[in-house]
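Sample entry (81 residues):
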Amino acid sequence: MTAPFAEELSQRHHHNVDLQLVYVLKGWFKNEFEGEGVYVMRAGSCWLQPPCIRHTVLGWSDDCELLEIIMPAEHETVNEP
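Predicted structure, serialized as tokens:
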């Protein structure tokens, strides 16, 4: 998270990955996952994001730091219409 969150950064999308594990090191991060709802993850939260799940980033704190383990590292992000 290198910039403050702005609405124009938020677009429904999915990642063509086999594995995506996210750990919040600092601050908070807010996502909406298709079929699952809205979640705010805070420092210490960890989640395994299902492959290709559609989601929308709704916000993050100015001090947010995430650790993401994604396989494959080089992957496509597909914006939804």
